Amino acid sequence: MTSRAAWWQGHRGEWWVVGQGVLMAAVVFAPPACRWAAPARAFWVAAGVALVAVGLGLAARAMRDLGPNLSPLPRPRRDAVLVTTGAFAHTRHPIYGGMIIAAVGWALWRGSGLHLLLAAVLAVYMSAKASHEEELLRARFDAYAAYRERTRRLIPWIY
Questions:
Q1: Residue 62 domain-assigned?
Q2: Within 13 A of 20's CA, how many CA atoms are on the CB side?
């Protein structure tokens, strides 16, 4: 009989997902603070709405592109294949990048400095999660090193 570790021990990266969920909830549900002035507000709301749409669209496209490889956990599934097409042709972690773009957009839409700070914390956290995941992907897929060299990390054409 094989023994399976309990999820709370985090062997597959469960705690990364918990932390991500907490930060995303904070971004969405924190009360607005340090709001900026009204003259520029209409511009920032429009920019925010656009960024939320772009970020959610990128993440949704990447989830579709992953298909059966999709998992919230950093450790790839046992039967996973390396996906380098679709959204993954432009960035190695498009779901994470999409979440960051959407969080920044939400902060602009809400007009809140606190939300912008939380979006920055989420970006740092997702970058750390991506680093952990990349170690696992490099160990699992021989082609990952070459893919990493030619593809941006989180946000297409930027980073």
A1: yes
A2: 19
Residue 7 neighbours by CB distance under 10 Å: 13
Task: Report the alpha-carbon distance of residue 137 to residue 122 in Å, rounded.
Answer: 22
pTM > 0.85: yes or no? yes
The whole-angstrom separation of Cα 131 and Cα 74 is 10
Task: Kindly state whether residue 25 falls inside one of the protein's structural domains.
Answer: no
Q: Which tokens in the block code for residue 58?
A: 């990128």
Domain that holds residue 53: 35-71+80-150
For residue range 139-148, list pLDDT tens digits in order. 999 999 999 9
The number of folded domains in the chain is 1
- 7 in a structural domain: no
Tens digits of residue pLDDT in 56-102: 999 999 999 999 999 989 999 999 999 999 999 999 999 999 999 99
